[in-house]
Design goal:
By secondary structure, the protein is an alpha/beta fold. It has a five-stranded mixed barrel, surrounded by five helices. Helix 1 packs across helix 6, helix 2 runs parallel beside helix 5 and helix 3 packs across helix 6.
Length: about 230
């Protein structure tokens, strides 16, 4: 069976998954708590990385080096950049890239990390994408599921104008603070990955929802999705 690494930035994003695990062994590393055990009879390592790109990249490297996971799933919440995506919908990454890396003065593309051989974005694994989309449609039929580019940066983006600029410049579906760090670390380690994001707002602010209520629903949708994925990846 494949050993899957499951990362959430915040404890709320992984607590329900941890509660469903059995046979748990705990490893503390880099001030992160890695819980290795079984989820629905399948081997997993579940961990809260903490917020930001550095934390998520370190977490992914530990999953690769210490636990030798076969793939990484990142679950969590993101802000929408696409007005066609509704609050509560899920975005499944086709790729991830940074929106706050800027080295164009040396001829690099916007968002491109210098000296990485022309890699501008980090492609997500196609099989993980396929399984994620099918799983979401099965267990969360009441919400939409979308595919596209996830943008990451060490900024919390709330401005409608800034969101519109990111959409125009980078063509992302959503933005958050961890995914591209995971994606880059996965890319460097030849490790399949996918990012799953529940959307917290409309890109054009045309609809709102109480965040505490949204968070409960989003976490349930993500837990249902990840649990179904785990059972279909072998």
């Amino acid at each position: 069976m494949k050993l899957l690494g499951i990362i959430g930035a915040m404890e709320e994003e992984v607590a329900d998954l941890k509660a469903r695990m059995t046979g748990v062994e705990i490893t503390e590393k880099a001030r992160m708590t890695f819980m290795k055990g079984e989820l629905c009879g399948h081997p997993v390592v579940v961990v809260r990385s903490g917020v930001c790109k550095v934390n998520s990249a370190i977490c992914t490297q530990i999953l690769a080096d210490t636990f030798h996971v076969d793939a990484v799933i990142n679950t969590g919440i993101a802000g929408s950049l696409n007005a066609d995506i509704n609050i509560g919908d899920i975005v499944v990454s086709t790729e991830a890239m940074y929106h706050d890396v800027e080295a164009t003065v040396w001829g690099y593309a916007p968002g491109e990390v210098p000296q990485m051989g022309g890699v501008v974005s980090f492609p997500a694994d196609e099989e993980l994408q396929r399984v994620a989309i099918a799983a979401c449609k099965k267990v969360n039929p009441e919400i939409g599921v979308h595919s596209g580019r996830v943008l990451s940066g060490d900024q919390f983006i709330s401005s409608t104008e800034v969101k519109a600029g990111l959409r125009e410049k980078f063509h992302g579906e959503c933005c958050e603070m961890e995914g591209a760090g995971i994606a880059q670390a996965a890319y460097l380690n030849h490790l399949p990955y996918v990012i799953l994001r529940a959307i917290s707002d409309k890109a054009d602010n045309s609809a709102v929802m109480d965040y505490s209520e949204f968070e409960k629903q989003a976490i349930l949708h993500c837990v249902n999705l990840v649990t179904e994925m785990v059972q279909n990846l072998d």
